[in-house]
Amino acid sequence: MAEAIDIRELNERIERESSFVTNLVTGMNQAIIGQKHLVESLLIGLLSDGHVLLEGVPGLAKTKAIKTLAALIDAKFSRIQFTPDLLPADVIGTMIYNQKESRFEAKQGPIFANFVLADEINRAPAKVQSALLEAMQERQVTLSTTTYQLPAPFLVLATQNPIEQEGTYPLPEAQVDRFMLKVVIDYPKLEEEKKIIRQNIAAEKTVIRPIMGTNEIESARKVVSQVYLDEKIEQYIADIVFATRYPDKYGLKDLTGLINFGASPRASINLALAARAFAFIKHRGYVIPEDIRAVAHDVLRHRIGLTYEAEATNVTQEEIISKIINKVEVP
Fold first, then answer.
1. 0.90 exceeded by the pTM?
2. N or C, which end of the chain has less CB nearby within 10 Å?
3. 160-177 core/surface letters (b: 16 or more CB in 10 A; e: else)
């Protein structure tokens, strides 16, 4: 009974604490029409302290969405356009010689921001990608002999174009695994498209003003970490991840020849964190199985390796994840 009261209290508190989410979504909707899933995914990354990889054809408001979010939070935003001739120093910074002082000084790169948009990340060579991903993982950058902490919150949103593969350097699985979510952005619906046209040809442009500071995001993250995750939900997460590794043990023998390697323990951690953030966005103090199902595709799609057989028969990660979710027993 005591636990039930605690859950009720927690639920009421999280309902109060999560009220700012509605304001953020309203602010995002002023600039972004439709793309509800994109907006929710950005908020999950923000509240879970996890980086997001956005995949979609050009013109689907990927850059606009992150710029809008940064403007709403009064945070420092920087955009890095990845190109084949980019160097690691162009991202993290370098040491420059000051003639007046007769000494070397650190010149910090664009990575020193709260929100970093890595536009077309797969256009840059492996050295640059490694420099960025190291900063993402360690939350710090070393220039010469000095280590500099990156600002908090620190969120990397990388985009990649799935259709144009000429002159690109695909991210290795080990690097892609650093992203909490891989979100696939689709075209807007017909009615949304008409609203987009109307909004963009209007004489008056929407001005986005900050509604909260970075300190409030840090506080919100602490509250998100208190969202209740039951043992049965933990078991459900573990079962879904294990089904990607040993599908035959979960009655999915037809997937055995299609999966080259399953999801890593990072997938289990990120499923739990993303589900907590999703419950928080929905103003709930506890995680339910529907939360896991809502975030499973984004957390797992870049963590499952396909065999040649799967690629030859056009089987996708999406189909494999859907089969697993439909088969694994819901608590």
1. no
2. N
3. bbeeeeeebbebeeebbb
